[in-house]
Amino acid sequence: MKYFALYTFAALIILLNCWLFKMNVWLMLFYQQQFGLMHTCTVSSIVSGIKPFVNAVVIALFIMHISAHYRLVNTVDTVDLCFRAAFHTTPPIRLYSLIFFFVSFAFFLGTFALFCVEFISFGSSLGTAADASFLIVPMLSLWNIVPLLYYDMYNRIVRFYCRVLISSLDKEHHKRHFSLKFYYEQFLRITNVQEAIGALFNPFVFFSLAWSMAILCLTIYFLTQPASTLVDPISPEFHKKPGMVELLNKKVAFALGWSLIQVIVAALNILVICSAGMQTNETTREIVDHVLRIVPDANADLDRFQISCFVHKMTTQFMWGMTVWRAFLLQRTTFFTLVSVIITYAFLLLKLKENPDLSPRTFPYHTITNHTLATVATTMMP
């Protein structure tokens, strides 16, 4: 009963996204049947239509890990109290929150503006059930970006604690203020925060990288295929309706615009996840580097033992650091590997395109009736 309202609201949001995804699948199958799989309409409906599915999965993942979220918040609060008492400083949470809400609002405003332009371009009028689209369509895109910003914000908090610890360790060269045992305790608290972040965000990181790579590869595959316009697969009867041609081409233009937004979100997922995790892991390793620069006293066996503890803890970073579901650490090599895969895939497709013997087979298009044309003109959704 404690989280009944939260679970109920999340269930309603998930059901809404599932229904929207079902409608997008129906639209994609319709375009695939009429125009072919690699036509502009079909591909754009796949790329932009995946948003509800991503939202439903991400919301379900966070709801299933609600206890891990509360553990993360409590862990950060505990570390903040310790650092405030010892170093008299605290992370600029207000600044991080301002960045979070500013980027979210800017993204919402951009998608809202695009939908308004589309709404006006087709001469639609208010006063129908479709008015809810003014809120639903921008929210679909916003839900894709909010968890990513939340993940980045917690990584910024961890890096702030690491920098405070590094700054204090640098001062130890001039005058000893704290023992290495004290620094090791604070280091363990920071690693506990990272472990709590992983417990909450690891499934999200893995899923986000997976669907982002899929979208980028699909986009590259589409761009490397022979150019196709909406007019090509239409029967000769269609050319007698120039107004319908202009209408459908306008629909395609806006569909490509929504697809471009989704491609940008996919690229941001890869860039932000790899960048945030990489910086956090590297900043954490810098703590050990600064510890090793401290020369122990002649008979300070305890200092030597604490240094050994630091080094041993860093050897287990794959267990508590920023990882992809503990499969591998987020490092520079991770980002370069993902980029290399995308570039290699693009060059491979371009090479196959140049070889006519390896070109994919083409299939005849279905004949489209006037009823089908009207359906296409009225059912295309962002």
From TrEMBL:
Keywords from the UniProt entry: Membrane, Transmembrane, Transmembrane helix
Source superkingdom: Eukaryota
Transmembrane segments: 6-31, 52-73, 93-120, 132-151, 209-231, 252-278, 329-350
Keyword Transmembrane helix: yes
Transmembrane helix is among the record's keywords: yes
Protein name: Gustatory receptor
Organism per entry: Mesorhabditis spiculigera
